[in-house]
Amino acid sequence: MMSHPPSSLFRLDSSTGEAYYRQIYTRLRSAVADGLLQPGDRIPSARALAAELGLARGTVEAAYSLLAAEGYVEARGQAGTVIAAGVRPAVQAAASKATASRPRTVAVPARHPLLPEEGQDEAKGPRPFQMGIPALDAFPRKIWARLAARAVRATQAADMLYPSPAGLMALRTEIARYLQLSRGIDCRAEQVFVTSGYRDSLNLITRTLLQPGDKIWVEDPGYAPSAALLREAGMQLAGIPVDAEGMQVEYGLRHAARARAAVVTPAHQSPTCVALSLPRRLALLEWAAREQAWIVEDDYDGEYRYVSRPLPALKSLDREDRVLYAGTFSKVLFPAIRLAYLVVPRSQVERFRRSAQLFSGAAPALTQHIVADFMAEGHFARHIQRMRRLYAHRRTMAIAGLEGVLHSHVRIDSPPGGMHLLLRLQGRRSDRLLAEKMRQHGMFSRALSECLLAPRAGVAPMIMLSFTNIDSRRRAAELARRILPLLAPA
Ligand SMILES: Cc1ncc(COP(=O)(O)O)c(C=O)c1O
User: Beta-carbon neighbour count of residue 380 at 10 Å?
Assistant: First the structure.
């Protein structure tokens, strides 16, 4: 019986994109399956292994807790962590020759029932062109880890109680300050409600201000989750077409003037990326004031504009206080953080406070603390500035790489802002079919026709591709060569 696995077992590979905790987990599982580690064998403490591999201790602990949850290892107090009794190698005879990187053939259940079944495969990074994901390689992980460790260490009894359903005041204050400086929004911290994502924000709005049966303007094409959530809440949707100036407000005035609310993406219309023009912004605000209707401004990536400074938010023009401003940390930090915010009209603060108490489970306090510190110490503003420069560069590289290969099949629009490109398909091709084929081939793509409220003829075929994680022109060209055969008629 060995007391320690050889350190070569843990040789990690940074080029695969597989998270380190996952690599450690897989290596140990394989070592058990291959008989290299036996019941009762001790594995290094999380602290020692983290030091040896130059990783954060939490990374190793994440791997160990997964292994413990699946019954591979057990903690024995002073004796450390050992391979659990009863775990059997799959092929006993192969034990002496086994190497850590051998494929898994295994003895114990492959998947813990509580691990996520849907969405991303945790082990992999974003798929090529996956929309809405910021440049994960450029996230300042060291700073984040330092602030996170400090916040954990500073935890007091008061931090362990139920947090306020509206969010931590420190974070709400930072958000209000940030919105003032960068989005031209004049609001107090009391108007800011921290939520666990845009959908949570929208849900809070429907619960607080709307009633089933209310008519709501939504952009068509638009962001499908908004429409789905509103429909589910019993709202009657009025699809408002979009053109080069954004939502056609005059269409709404003509066909559905008596609506209770409008949900818009003014900075970069989702998914066409066009900005809502100033005359339309003013017409929308005027309509809302006249009808006493609400405007939900979904400003999911307004910070990212490359040809000029970011446009001020619609909320910054809102003299009558009809706009609910919804922001998210998904694009400026990372989506797994599940943190967003909502700025509500002053007159509605009390109502929102009551419905947050009822409907909001409150965002995790620790995460809120870390983000508040990240903002207060200036890392947030610096990170956004760096990302703006990086995305401008990646956008240019992605266009050059894609155009070099696909130029006779597509025309690439490069909108002034946002996180994705629009590829107009030449000829009578189906954008939906191409998007589906790309997804089948391990890439990501969204077709414009998939973003319509209902199928409609005469919409130019177009697919959307994110460039934020495409780090070179060569990589873009490589991917374009994978798209090329998929453009052939089916
Ligand atoms: C149009 C739009 N709104 C909002 C969001 C943000 O959603 P969340 O805060 O749930 O990540 C996204 C994310 O992709 C989006 O594309």
Answer: 22
Cα–ligand 1 centroid distance for 303 (angstroms): 14
pLDDT tens for 361-402 read: 899 999 999 999 999 999 999 999 999 999 999 999 999 999
Q: Which residues of 443-462 are buried (b: 16+ CB within 10 A; e: fewer)?
A: bbbbbbbbbbbeeeeeeebb
Q: Is the CB of 330 under 6 A from ligand 1?
A: yes
Ligand 1 atom, smallest distance to 222 CA: 1
What would the CATH number be for the domain defined by 386-487?
A: 3.90.1150.10
Confirm or reject: Cβ of 198 under 6 Å from ligand 1. yes
pLDDT per residue as tens digits for the range 89-148: 654 433 333 433 333 333 333 333 333 334 555 567 899 999 999 999 999 999 999 999
Domain 144-380: which topology? Aspartate Aminotransferase; domain 2 (3.40.640)
Q: Are strands 323-328 and 294-298 parallel, antiparallel or unpaired?
A: parallel
Percentage of residues in the chain having pLDDT higher than 70? 89
Please give the CATH topology (third level) of the domain spanning 7-97: Arc Repressor Mutant, subunit A (1.10.10)
Q: Is the dihedral of CA 158, 160, 161, 164 positive or negative?
A: positive
Determine the residue type at 376.
A
